[in-house]
Amino acid sequence: MKISWRKHLNTLGPLVGLIFVVVIFATLLAWKDVMDGREFSGETGVSFFASIKDTDFYGLKAFLGGANAKIVLTQTVIVALGALGMTVVIISGGIDLSAGSVVALCSVVGAQLLNTSWASPWGVVLITVAAGGVVGLVNGGVVAGLRMMPFIVTLGMMTIARGAAKWLGGNQTVNFPDTPLLNLMALHKPDAFFPLPYGVWITAGLAVLTALLLRQTIFGRYVFAIGSNEATARLCGIRVQWMKVVVYALAGLYFGLAGLMQMARLAQGDPTVAIGLELDMIAAVVIGGASLNGGAGSVAGSMVGALIMTTLRSGSQLMGWPNYFQEIIIGTVIVLAVALDRLRHRAAK
Amino acid sequence: MPTPRLKTTDIHKSFGATKALRGVSFEVMPGEVHALIGENGAGKSTLMKVLSGAHEQDSGTLELNGQPFHPGNPLNARQAGVAMIYQELNLAPDLTVEENILLGREPSRFGIIDRRQRRKQALHALDELEHHVPLDVPVNRLTIAEQQLVEIARALVFEPKVLIMDEPTSSLTQQDAKNLFRVIRQLKQRGVSVIYISHFLEECQQIADRYTVLRDGESVGSGEMKNARLDEIIHLMVGREIADIYPPHARQPGNVIFDIHELAGYEKPSDVTLELRQGEILGMAGLVGAGRTETLRAVFGLDRIRRGKVYYLKNNLTQRSPRGSWRNGLGMVSENRKEEGLMLDHSLADNLCLTRYRPFSSFGWINRRQQLAATIEVMTKLDVRAREASQSIGELSGGNQQKIAIGRLLHHDADILLLDEPTRGIDVGSKQQIYRIMNELAEQGKSVIFVSSYLPELLGVCDRIGVMCRGVLSGIRPVQDWTEHEIIAAATGQK
């Protein structure tokens, strides 16, 4: 009985973390609302509970309201798509540091394509996503072919892809004419939760597909196997190097799609966007319970991890905290989340 | 009679239910080379770890120069004058010879290394060995023999009274071994006692003054080396009868179906030829490091082959990948269960089915329920004790883990089974079940190559046995024609 309860705790761990973050910020914002209200009306002499009654809780409502939830979900799309690819890579025992640069590169690729006359919106989508896949293919090819550390290979690719993005964009942002692709990230009816931008639905759908891919297919089992124990995987006849190529290429496709979303969100291709975004993706995956040693991780966990990252940002903004303070908070939460996860695993043993 | 330099009395040590040492007593005199002899698993390594402070004994006493000796940890032991040189050398490969010799003991002032002093001490240590290894070269550029000298020099910095050497010649050439003996004699003249562990009896005879034989964790005899006869020592090493834990078998192996011809790898093996019949268990005996594991790995496609051929039913299987081997009906169990056998953090089901998902998948999509059912079927057949098929395999005992590792070949329905030390480190009950499984498989017409360092099980289970010595497989004979003495003699390179 006790053991099965623990098992559920393990899968729910990140979700509990998300709820925790939401509750903390709701409390902080409510507190702030009350204090602001007292200051505004000059009721400093009145008891605290009396002023609660008079407070409008504007900030709290804004944080928990449907409109903000929609913004949070939309802001999560790019990190979440990247985190999907990163989940597969990390479970296989690798890492991809080039993800942020690939997002920028693909946003420029998409923007430049929209400036040509021959590419239809669908063509733009296909070519942009494929561009990400090609970068991933190169990553995987070098990692597998030369037996190199993924950390080094993708570190190099991080700079290469960034340079390529600047080159393609002529070292500046690339504007493009109006296109239906902007609907991917556009917030129609900003006061209500629905309709959600297409990007949110696409991300949700891909998350389900990726989860099924990892859990229910032979390919997914092999990804876990090479991350868990590469020597065993090889002994058991899995084509380990070939798998690595496929894994990085697949991740590249996700990063390419994230780049397309980035382009739609900014309504321009920006070669200097998404610097350090790969670290947000990695943080989301690790908060979601994956191990950087490979062999462990889940799509659900990574998605919740990505939501935690965006919720932290959103809450901090509503609190009116300056940017540097947000960064300190987010960094602390990443370390704390993983520390708690390790403690939980040790307790389970 | 002088006080012994080192004396152990009735040492016992258990790991869980396994009794590694069951009463070891022996003494080493000052300036004596004492050979410690025993089969694999006799308890030599455990004893050495107790002496060098890596383990603590459960009961029994250690005395150093007549004083009680409680090392507690390797550093204390070394400071008290007991140093150990392991079979696997422990050097920092990128540091220079000089840095390695004084690693952790650098002469310094206010945290700054006194280089001149360090050089002096390093030279001094090497001078005592009367060998000159360049001091400024990183040790990974040295030969194994030179690296070993560096390791010995490092031990000498502590001015040891007792130096323990575990299989020091196992990776040396004959010439290097001779040099090593000269070094040992020099140490001896300086009054250092050397405990010399080796499988090679002839070497022990050359270098040692006295010997002690260990068997099943007990010291069963000791004496002067020059009066001893090798066959007496071998008798002490073996000294037991084959218990009836081996299933009786009366199979008649069929035609030759699997054929290895003059196989050689890049380091080991150097020459392996064998023919395997249908429904046969062929044993491969030999010392650790003789090249048995490397042979199986080369056959299976895990290591590269330099020359030679592998045929299965007249099909050339030479230099396939592991994937190709599985597809052609070969299966292998690695000697290293944790590092190359299983995914410990994954479920029994996934560990069992990793090579063959096809029976319960379509278009790459796995039917979980069918997979679990197939797993439970194998678990029942092999008597695997586990809570559920989706339990993570790391939670099981070693014996049950190993049954799953072998179960993988059953699930795959492999016809040629390469088993590398399949009973290492598991309890007797599980061993017995594994023998039974092997026996059943052979009766069904599967063929097995069985590598083991434990002679009784080879003699109890196999149809024929070949012995590997220094990379060469020779003398495959029916099991009835072998005795343990003869196998040991062949494995240690005696005629």
Describe the structure concisely.
The complex is a heterodimer of chains A (349) and B (495). With 349 residues, chain A is mostly helical.
**Strands side by side in the biggest sheet of chain B:** 6-9-10-3-11-12
Distance, first to last CA of chain A = 16 Å
The Cα radius of gyration of chain B reads 25 Å
Query: Share of helix among residues of chain B?
Result: 25-40%
Number of strands of chain B: 24
CATH architectural arrangement of the largest domain in chain B: 3-Layer(aba) Sandwich
Q: What Rg of chain A is obtained from the alpha carbons, in whole angstroms?
A: 22 Å
CATH architectural grouping of the largest domain in chain A: Orthogonal Bundle
Would you give an account of this structure?
The complex is a heterodimer of chains A (349) and B (495). The model of chain A has no long low-confidence stretch (mean pLDDT 90). Chain A starts with a helix and ends with a helix. Chain A has helices at 2-41, 48-54, 58-64, 66-91, 99-114, 121-145, 150-168, 198-216, 218-228, 230-235, 240-266, 277-287, 299-318, 323-348. Chain A has 2 domains: 1-56; 65-348, Orthogonal Bundle (ABC transporter involved in vitamin B12 uptake, BtuC), CATH 1.10.3470. In chain A, 74% of the residues lie in helices and 0% in strands. With 349 residues, chain A is an all-alpha fold. Chain B has 495 residues and is an alpha/beta fold. Chain B has 2 domains: 6-238, Rossmann fold; 256-491, P-loop containing nucleotide triphosphate hydrolases (Rossmann fold). Chain B is 34% helix and 26% strand. The chains are: A mainly alpha (349), B alpha/beta (495). Chains A and B meet through helix 9 and helix 10 of A and helix 10, helix 11 and strand 20 of B.
